[in-house]
Amino acid sequence: MTETFQFNLLATDGAARRGEITMPRGTIRTPAFMPVGTVGTVKAMYLDQVRDLGADVILGNTYHLMLRPGPERVARLGGLHELIRWPYPILTDSGGFQVMSLSGLRKLDEQGVTFKSHVDGALHHMSPERSIEIQGLLDSDIQMQLDECVALPAEPKEIERAMEMSVRWAERCKVAFGNQPGKAMFGIVQGGDIPALRVKSAEALSALDLKGYAIGGLAVGEPQHVMLDMISTTLPHLPTHKPRYLMGVGTPDDLLKSVARGIDMFDCVMPTRSGRHGLAFTRRGRVNIRNARHAEDMRPLDEESSCPAARDYSRAYLHHLVRANEALGGMLLTWNNLAYYQDLMQGIRTAIEKGRFADFMAETQEAWAKGDIDPV
Questions:
Q1: Looking at the domain assignment, is residue 375 inside a domain?
Q2: pTM for the full model?
Q3: N- or C-end of the chain: fewer Cβ atoms within 10 A?
Q4: For 299-315, how does the pLDDT look when each residue is reduced to its tens digit (9 = 90+)?
């Protein structure tokens, strides 16, 4: 096992990339989908299950973990890996997005952001240095810079102000992170839906020579074509020999189209949140198990799936569980959804290796378009 952080490109197919991130706690096969473990748990799942599905890395959230149980406590307990029984890589986001979206009262200036906890109303201050300090106490393997994420639509001057401050914060985060062998700090490209600002941000961050780069501030309500345009605008201005992470994305279709443009890493709450609300992702597209058509259907979600939740439980039973608000319903559908996402990513990686990514993408989209199996 390597003692350093390394990214190696193993194959390309058009703009799609197949690679590996190697670090002391393990190898991340890319393109990778990272299940979201916001507060140290992937909701409705055992982490052993998450690993068995093929996840190489999970995501934790700095904002939520700083509020409870607290980073100093996590450090005293041996770090996040030890606490949650996940000895593999963990990426922590900086907390910036949650500060902007969850805290009802906040004051932002050059030094950072002061905000009230959504949990108990206590006042906290998050600076770029404190964000990196917290992530260090958590002992995460990939740490994200603190940035300001502006909700779209927004005025161009506001987008530019936030982007420029995020670049300055990236510089401070780099200093605070220092030299941590085997770990990495990623910068986050901002700039909203304005191409020139995305380019300016990407070029400024590239000059910092960080170990990886994320694209933030997308999938926040803008149309998919805007997100894809911003990806296509940004990537030519980021280093090709370092991983590229699209934050908070997204649907299976988002993943395919973003990989086609050169993205290596993703995270999103969609598969887990959707599962808890009765929505399943399958080879045939989305299935709303709440619909009455499933009430007496003894067929599984997908008889060809390797996941027991999809293969061994009937739609009728899943329908009953979800309609009865039984926890097991959300657990089984979350299991199915994460299995589908990881299977999709494995299919993508294999297709890139074989030079047939475009065919794989077309076949996958065609299966979604055909829709679910006919009702009984």
A1: no
A2: 0.96
A3: N
A4: 999 999 999 999 999 99
Q: What is the pLDDT of residue 97?
A: 76
State whether 112 and 192 are in the same domain: yes
Radius of gyration of the chain measured on its C-alpha atoms:
20
* Known catalytic membership, residue 297: no
Both 252 and 308 in one domain: the answer is: no
CA dihedral 241, 206, 144, 142 (to 10 degrees): 20
Residues 6+ apart with CB under 8 A from 295: 316, 319, 320
> Of 13, 93, 254, 302, which residue is the catalytic one?
93
Tell me the residue ranges of DSSP E strands in the chain: 6-13, 16-23, 26-30, 32-35, 58-61, 90-93, 106-109, 112-116, 123-126, 142-144, 184-189, 212-215, 244-246, 265-268, 279-282, 285-288
Active site residue 267: yes
How many structural domains compose the chain? 2
Q: Per the residue annotation, which of 13, 139, 141, 267 is the catalytic one?
A: 267
Question: Which of 101-115, 179-193, 284-298 has the least mean pLDDT?
Answer: 101-115
The tokens describing 298, both together, are 């003894």
- Is the Cβ–Cβ distance between 58 and 35 less than 8 Å? yes
Please enumerate in sequence order all residues whose Cβ is within 8 A of that of 7, keeping only pairs 6 or more positions apart, or say none. 19, 20, 21, 22, 211, 212, 241, 242, 243
What is the per-residue pLDDT across 40-71, written as a single tens digit (0 to 9) for each? 999 999 999 999 999 999 999 999 999 999 99
Q: Give the model's confidence band at 1: pLDDT under 50 very low, under 70 low, under 90 confident, else very high.
A: low
Q: Look over the chain and give the mean of its residue pLDDT values, rounded to a whole number.
A: 95
